[in-house]
Amino acid sequence: MTLVRPRRWTDWLALALLAAFVAAGSVSVWWLSRSALAVHRLTRGIGDTVFYGADGQPWFRLDEQRHDVALSEISPELQHAVVAIEDRRFYHHPGVDPIGLARAAVRDLRARGNIEGGSTLTQQLARTLFLSNARTYGRKVKEAGLALLIESQLTKNQILELYLNRVYLSAGVYGVETMSEHLFRKPSKSLTLPEAALVAGLIRAPSALSPWSNYDGALDRSHLVLAQMRAQGFITAAEDEAARRVRPRIQPYRQPDDSRAAWAKEFLRQQFRNEFGGDHPPDWQVHTAFHPDLQDAAERAVAAGIQRLGIRGLEAALVAIDPSTGDLLALVGGANYSRNTFNRAVRSRRQPGSAFKPILYAAALDHGFSPVSIIPNLKAVSAPGNPEWMPRNSDNREPEALTVRAALIESNNAAAAVLQHQLGSNAVLRLASDSGLSGLPDVPSLSLGTGLVTPIDLTSAYTMFPGGGEVARPRAIISVFDANGAQVLDRAVDRTRVISEEAAFQMVTLLRDVIERGTGAPARALGVRGPVGGKTGTTDEYRDAWFVGFSSSVVVGVWVGFDQPTPIGREAYGARVALPIWADFMKRTARELPAVEFTMPPGLHGVELCSVSYLRPVEGCPVYTEYFKDSDTVPSALCPIHQGTFRQRASRAVAGLLKSLGSKIAGLFRR
Question: Which domains does the chain have, with CATH numbers?
Fold first, then answer.
């Protein structure tokens, strides 16, 4: 077969039109097949997606503001009222009403506006379930196509049942059953004729006609509903006149009772909608990582902490993560959900202050430093003082040098600045980015926490310490099953190695020391027991207070501050403001989240050192066990601070003499 090359422009035009027709047909077939599958799912009827806690028990529904009921549980008067005012030919058309469309088209042509009105009840249902409210010709075409598909697969009663359960009726309320409970404190089955007309009249303009803000407007609209019901034979003239004489008594608007675990529930709903969209057929099951009991403990800890501080407008956030899986166990996004729903745990980006320093020290330990490596020349660096630490020296002088361990215990800013310079900012930024802390500035003050982070991201980054060097990405939803029991989502544990196992364990020992004898010491006085570690953080002028701490079972981050960065108060540093909330949560959950000993990896070996000088101990030294990697330099010098035995003193004297002679000889060769 020989292909004929087009010769004239008309041939090219015909070919282009044919290609466009084929393309449009292909797209239409694809859209129709996908839409038909979505519509078929509606045949399962009413219902809602249910979220389950980590205990395997049903926890809450996707839409707490909607209460689906069977059509038989809705009063006939309300059914007739809706049909009369919204779609008088509902029982006779195939989903699209040509008469209604023609009437609306004539009206809109006269008004020179876009096509609107004339939608059948089935078209409204299609728009509610599958489309936006954009007033365009394209949306109207899709709406009509979906309405025809719905009518082909569902009975009229099924369509009406779905519509009455999904229709928006003002004030965030969906469905006639929920609106009846809000307005009249009774089920829709018990509505009188005037009450039914009032509810049905809200559908056309739910915001403008809300009975709580425009009762007279809603009442006038209900009279129009009654007139339509009378004209269509649903009620008699006497019933119409009697109903018009009644002013239905409405009840005050009642906020949904969803205050408990509200932060976690709304976060999970948003996660689900991001994955699957806003509305789904009944009987879906969403299995989450959240523990309702732990969520309750988190909310109580935050509420008690804010109440203890007694500062008006102060906010707080708490995040609890399982370091082995990344499971989000609890999340609190603010002091009071009913007052302000902004989720600070997830969305608020604030400076972490010294709570960022463990990222610096972890990078250093992973690049050849040991916990007792010396950070020198501290007086040569200009760094802001840290309000969280009072110098141990009786003369209040800053030290010339500190070990890595001592610097972190004291949260020394000069030491952090020097260490960042020695290590290089790139190593710190790389580890931060790998840990989920992105967009941080490459500046000398990076390690002092001048970048911006969210509480959930910083808490997740800390999972590298009890997690053996692996960061566990936060996981809120674990799995989702549709109504047929088929698994439509299976979110695996996501762990990424960011530092070595040996460096992670060394960091655990450092951060445990912060609790035992550093800025985190108040945790013990507040009753926290067992092996735990953590780090405080306070930003300039006490605008932000942090504490991120962990056990082997959980990592918990707490932030406290104002939404608009403002000083919290005098000496409002992390140990006084955020740490008590962390400690409260840890105590409340000690049984569910036991703190057991951390496992030391095989690549480390322990050496006994003096806990003051961080050198080899002599008699009289308080000692501890330091853990070294095979590549680390282990101190050989004896502690010069404590007296020791005569033999130890003599050994120190000889070592000092040899060191002095060595320095002098080296100086001769440098001349």
Answer: 74-244 (1.10.3810.10), 295-588 (3.40.710.10), 604-670 (no CATH)
